[in-house]
Amino acid sequence: xxxxTPRHALFLRRLSxxxxxxxxxxxxxxxxxxxxxxxxxxxxxxLPVLQLGQQTAGRLARRLRKVTRRLGGVRExxxxxxxxxxxxxxxxxxxxALDVLEQEARQARDSTHAKLLQSGAARELRRIARKLETxxxxxxxxxxxxxxxxxxxAVEARVARRTALLQLAIDEAxxxxxxxxxxxVRIALKKVRxxxxxxxxxxxxxxxxxxxxxxxxxxxxxxxLHDLHVLIERVRRAQTSLAPPNLTVWRDLERISxxxxxxCRRLHGQYVRRRPALxxxxxxxxxxxxxxxxxxxxxxx
Length: 301
Known about the structure:
single chain; mainly alpha; Four Helix Bundle (Hemerythrin (Met), subunit A); 2 domains; 11 helices
């Protein structure tokens, strides 16, 4: 099916979201940091099919990947703060222990954000934005139906490769609760999701939108599981570094840890129940891609 939205329009849309978050990132806004990371991932997904040349696209993708990673530390601490807010609503009896965790997380977040700005990250972000704007001025879409189909085929080929890696991660994770392997499933799922998202914007197919909803839901579930695991590690560190020693606070921290672990187990149970449907989605995505003219898809990708 002929794409409904040209690549240039998709690129401009993603670039706009990237540049709009710059002031907020500099100010340390929680939402802006998250949106910047999402925008950088979406731009990286589109770059390979813009016909910029392998060297240019690769260099920009590396710089955007670096942005995502550098903001990762700030984002992780933002998520910890959000989880602590939720925990305070759920477990108001652990006030002193939660005070300890919140103070430690706030100090770590402020320090991480300050180091990010001191390292020149804000200037680098603006340089990347200017470079992307220059690239946007050069991008031109070939309006022929074949040319427009080819970049969709190229994205489908990328989705197929990533779907195979997602299925492999699902198989390796199995049904046992192992945080690192579940995190690998989440990362692989996220990459598939951004590819399918691009396909949904580039061509109107209802089945793809249904798949995207499934991917988002599963990513949210695994993301919440990962966030709770990160918080558990911070609770354990707080226990070992508690100063001055306080047995009551230590015990409350232990109870918080046990409560979080129980929530992780419940979320893992939900993932295990949803896993067959996720594997079925992988099969469907692979089947759709294999239906594309293989030779044309290889030339496009």
